[in-house]
Amino acid sequence: xxxxxxxxxxxxxxxxxxxxxxxxxxxxxxxxxxxxxxxxxxxxxxxxxxxxxxxxxxxxxxxxxxxxxxxxxxxxxxxxxxxxxxxxxxxxxxxxxxxxxxxxxxxxxxxxxxxxxxxxxxxx
Length: 124
What we know:
four-stranded antiparallel beta sheet, 11 strands, about 0% helix
């Protein structure tokens, strides 16, 4: 069973930075895909960044150039470095995993393992 625990959220002023971490267990990079998602109040959940077992990444246009996804396979930790934060980045951020089918960089694929989320609030 895959288990995911996020940390690192908080409140920051616009232009600031945060790094989210996701401690993952019960998975391997050769069998699962990992990603970061977010959900703002009144909005649906959206994919933010995805990564595959070769450390290739894909980020949403809304965060491209500002957010970077990475992973430490030795420690089973997924990261999301968020720079130049904007008020519109305010959301609950979730780490997610799915069984590897097709490309891990496909935004249309559904994920079946989720963490509890960590809140990010950006003030203007």
